[in-house]
Design goal:
- The chain is built from ten helices and 15 strands.
- It is globular and about 65 Å long.
- Helix 1 crosses helix 7, helix 6 packs parallel to helix 8 and helix 6 packs across helix 10.
- It has 342 residues and is of the alpha/beta class.
- The model has no long low-confidence stretch (mean pLDDT 95).
- A seven-stranded parallel beta sheet has the order 3-2-1-4-5-6-11, sandwiched between helices. A four-stranded mixed beta sheet has the order 8-15-14-13.
- It folds into two domains: 204 residues, Rossmann fold (3-Layer(aba) Sandwich); 98 residues, UDP-galactose 4-epimerase, domain 1.
- This is GDP-mannose 4,6-dehydratase.
- Its EC number is 4.2.1.47.
- It is an enzyme of class 4 (lyase).
- One of its GO terms (molecular function) is NADP+ binding.
- Its cofactor is NADP(+).
Length: 342
C-alpha cells in the first residue's frame, strides 16, 4: 500500500485528490493548520469509514513540524497543494503569501532532502506564472511573466522545485495547472461568486451580482479531472514538469452568461467599463454590475494552456466540458440554497 501526504488537503484540490488516492488504495495523510474553527467541510466524508484520511497538525512555515511528520508518516509521495491561493488577496497580504507559497515549498523540499530523498514530490504550480503572456497558447517552454504577489511566490516555488530536482536528484515535479473549478471552489473565487450569486438572487437574498473584469479570459477545467493528472505526474519513470489545461479559453462574461442561462435567464449587456450592466432580456432587471473593488492592480488578460505534453506523455484527457462544469456548479449552489428549478 502506497502512503501519501497531502498539504492543503482541506482545499478544493486536496479533497478531490484525497478521494482519488483512497480509491487507488493509498493510505492518505493530510496536513492541516490548527484552528478554533472547523475547516474540514470538504473532507468530512473522508474522515470516517474503513478507508479514511488521517489528519496531522502542522504548518508550511514550521520546518520542525514538517520534518517530524515525514519521519512519522514515511510517505512515498508528497503532494504540496498548500497555498494562499487567492490572487487578489495576495496584493493585500504579499508577505504572508510569500511565506506560505514560496518559503513553505522550500522548507518542505529541504525536509524531504534531509529525511528521505526517495520521496516523490509534487508542487502545485499555477498558470498565473505566465501572467502577461509571451505567447498563445502557453506550454512548458513559454517564458513566465508573473503579475501578482501570488504568481511571484509560485514562480519561486516552481524554480526551487526544479533546482532541488537538478541539484539533489529528487523526484520533484511541477504541475502547471490552469484554472480548475468545481462546486468545492472557494466562494471568493469568481466562478463560485457567480454561481452562489445566482442562487442568492433567486432566493431573494440579494438583487444583483457584482463582478470585476468581465473580459478576462481563462482556461477553465474541472478540478476532479485535474487531480488525475497530478497523480499521473508522480507515476512517471522520470520527474518532469507539465502544463495541465483544456486548451479552451472563455471570458468571465461567457461564464456569467452560461450560468444565468442554466436558470432560464438570458443576459443582455448595456454600457461600458465600470458602467456596464447585465440585464435580464425578458424583464430588464439589472442582475450584474461591474465594481472597481474586484479589479487587480495588474491584470492578467488571457490564459490558454497547451496540454499536448500531458496528453501524450501522461495519457491524460479532461472529461468534463466547460458547459457541463458551469451546469454542475450552478446546480450545486441552487441545491445548497434549497432551490429546485426542475
Amino acid at each position: 500500500m502506497k502512503r501519501a501526504l497531502i498539504t492543503g488537503i482541506t482545499g478544493q484540490d486536496g479533497s478531490y485528490l484525497a478521494e482519488f488516492l483512497l480509491e487507488k488504495g493509498y493510505e492518505v495523510h493530510g496536513l492541516i493548520r490548527r484552528s478554533s474553527i472547523d475547516n474540514t467541510e470538504r473532507i468530512n466524508h473522508l474522515l470516517n469509514g474503513p478507508r479514511k484520511v488521517t489528519l496531522h497538525y502542522g504548518d508550511m512555515t514550521d520546518a520542525g513540524s514538517l520534518s517530524r511528520l515525514l519521519y512519522s508518516i514515511e510517505p512515498d509521495e508528497v503532494y504540496n497543494l498548500a497555498a494562499q491561493s487567492h490572487v487578489k488577496i495576495s496584493f493585500d497580504m504579499p508577505k504572508f503569501t510569500a511565506d506560505v507559497n514560496a518559503i513553505g515549498t522550500l522548507t518542505l523540499l529541504e525536509s524531504i532532502r534531509e529525511v528521505n530523498p526517495d520521496i516523490k514530490f509534487y508542487q502545485a504550480s499555477s498558470s498565473e506564472l505566465f501572467g502577461k503572456v509571451r505567447e498563445i497558447p502557453q506550454n512548458e517552454n513559454t517564458p513566465f511573466y508573473p503579475r501578482s504577489p501570488y504568481a511571484v511566490s509560485k514562480l519561486y516555488a516552481y524554480w526551487i522545485t526544479v533546482n532541488y530536482r537538478e541539484a539533489y536528484n529528487l523526484f520533484a515535479c511541477n504541475g502547471i495547472l490552469f484554472n480548475h473549478e468545481s462546486p468545492r471552489r472557494g466562494k471568493n473565487f469568481v466562478t463560485r461568486k457567480i454561481t452562489t450569486g445566482i442562487a442568492d438572487i433567486l432566493a431573494g437574498k440579494t438583487d444583483c451580482l457584482y463582478l470585476g473584469n468581465l473580459d478576462a479570459k481563462r482556461d477553465w477545467g474541472y478540478a476532479g479531472d485535474y487531480v488525475e493528472a497530478i497523480w499521473l505526474i508522480l507515476q512517471q519513470d522520470k520527474p518532469d514538469d507539465y502544463v495541465v489545461a483544456t486548451g479552451e479559453t472563455h471570458t468571465v462574461r461567457e461564464f456569467c452568461e452560461l450560468a444565468f442561462r442554466n436558470v432560464g435567464i438570458n443576459l443582455a449587456w448595456q454600457g461600458e467599463g465600470l458602467n456596464e450592466i447585465g440585464v435580464d432580456k425578458d424583464t430588464g432587471r439589472v442582475l450584474v454590475r461591474v465594481s472597481s473593488e474586484f479589479f487587480r492592480p495588474s491584470e492578467v488578460d488571457l490564459l490558454l494552456g497547451d496540454p499536448t505534453k500531458a496528453k501524450t506523455k501522461l495519457g491524460w484527457q479532461p472529461r468534463v466540458s466547460f458547459e457541463k462544469l458551469v451546469e454542475m456548479m450552478v446546480r450545486s449552489d441552487l441545491q445548497a440554497a434549497g432551490i429546485n428549478l426542475s
